[in-house]
Amino acid sequence: MMKTITVVIPVFNEAGAIVPHLETILATTREVAANFQFLIIDDGSSDNTAKEVHQLCEKTEEVELICLSRNFGKEAAIFAGITHAQGDAVIVMDSDLQHPPELIEKMIQLWHQGIDVVEAYKASRGKETWTSNILANGFYSLFKFLSGMDIKNHSDFKLLDRRVVDVYCRLPERKRFFRGLVHWMGFSTAKIPFEVPERQAGSSAWSRLRLLKFSLTAITSFSSLPLQIITLLGFFFLLITMVIGGISLYDKFVGHAVSGFTTVILLLLLIGGFIMIGLGLIGIYLAHIYDEIKARPSFLINWRKSSIESMQQLPPDDYLQPPQKQEK
């Protein structure tokens, strides 16, 4: 029996080119020997993205639209799509064609060979600025140093076997880093390199500030080493304080004039700065704990629409349990 593949595509404010991009992806997958379902997850777009996709649903049987009640972020949109995916395998990809749909056939071939996770990775980062490359490489290096996991040049363009999807959906945490969690689970993986094509329309919705916030979330979700570094810095400055204190006491006992106020002030500023940084890091981890304890859902669905079912308002508890997979 032909396998069913669910393609999850998160979108946000992409009305300008969303339909032609989706039509390109659809046309490519029609040449692949598999049954495809498409879940388009609108992450609270403020433009006409949902309306454009809704019109595509009316004339395309395999496309379904799920609208989140507000903008929860790409990670939550991916989780929403994976949670509602019914296929034997799930492919997560972007809609802007920077994840080449031509790779889907090769990904499915590797999956048929028994690979649980087929990951397309960036052989290069395309026409990004040198500052973006430096910041990206810095993040990946820091993430590897702190967490021990190398995810350099990884992307969200992945195929996941059904058992990987089921495990991912059962993970209890709410602050999710999709690439990191899939890598952490340790299922058998095959990789396909690709060159990032030039963006055909629009611009990235990721500002430097959003990327910084995302980076902090990713790192602190997978490593507690920054907290241990604070402890090491505390011992280091304690040692410096003991040395300077010993020198000061010696000068006092031998009758030398006390000097070095500039050094003391600089040390106070340096130590105070590290204390504030340490408190900030502790605050980030406490915020993670606070979010987990609140146990709020990662996303809320406003409504869903496909060409084979009428628009329906979902009950409040729909997001709590994924739909049951139908027996074949």
The dominant shape is elongated
The rounded Rg comes to 25 Å
Mean pLDDT: 80
- Major sheet size, sense and barrel closure: 9 strands, mixed
CATH superfamily of the largest domain: Spore Coat Polysaccharide Biosynthesis Protein SpsA, Chain A
Number of helices: 10
| The first-level CATH class name of the largest domain | Alpha Beta
**Major sheet: arrangement of strands:** 7-5-6-4-1-2-3-8-9
Query: Which residue ranges are poorly predicted, with pLDDT under 50 across at least 5 consecutive positions?
Result: 307-328
What structural class should be given to the helix and strand makeup?
alpha/beta
Distance between the termini: 10 Å
Q: Can you give the helix content as a percent range?
A: 40-55%
Overall tally of structural domains:
2
Record field, number of beta strands: 9
Query: Under the CATH scheme, which architecture of the largest domain would be assigned?
Result: Alpha-Beta Complex
Quick synopsis:
The chain has helices at residues 18-29, 49-59, 74-84, 104-112, 130-147, 162-170, 178-185, 208-222, 225-254, 261-294, and strands at residues 4-11, 35-42, 63-68, 89-92, 117-124, 158-161, 189-195, 301-306, 309-313.
